[in-house]
Amino acid sequence: MDDLLTDLKYTIRSLIKAPAFTLAAVAALTLGIGANTAIFSVVNAVLLKPVAAPEPDRVVYFMNTSPQGSGPGASPAKFMHWRQQTDVVQDASAFRGNIVN
């Protein structure tokens, strides 16, 4: 325990003697902690929180496919057709995601 106190006193004296280094170290820690918090907040909101649905294990994602692969999203007419087919699904909702090229 004495070694810890001795090291702490030495550290404080060293930081007081070099205020520029102290300021740079505090700024680096501040930026690092802030960036880490921001990234975790986004990951938590997007990936870790459960889907806001009463029974998320029953959520289904429809998408267009063709022999060439996945196509663009469904047209409003196709979506309305899917929504009217309620003998298979309880309800249907649409969303639009923005894609940056």
Write down the secondary-structure element order: HHEEH
- Determine the mean pLDDT: 82
Q: What best-fitting shape do the alpha-carbon axes yield?
A: elongated
Strand content: under 5%
Any key phrases for this structure?
3 helices, 101 residues, 2 domains, mainly alpha
Note the topology.
Layout: H1 2-17, H2 19-48, E1 65-66, E2 69-70, H3 76-84
Antiparallel strand pairs: 1-2
Summarize it.
With 101 residues, the chain is mainly α. It has helices spanning 2-17, 19-48, 76-84; strands at 65-66, 69-70.
Written overview of the protein:
The chain has helices at 2-17, 19-48, 76-84, and strands at residues 65-66, 69-70. It has 101 residues and is mostly helical. It folds into 2 domains: 2-48; 51-93, no CATH class. The chain has a two-stranded antiparallel ribbon. Strand 1 and strand 2 form a beta hairpin. It is elongated, with a radius of gyration of 27 Å. It starts with a helix and ends in a 17-residue tail after the last helix. The mean pLDDT is 82.
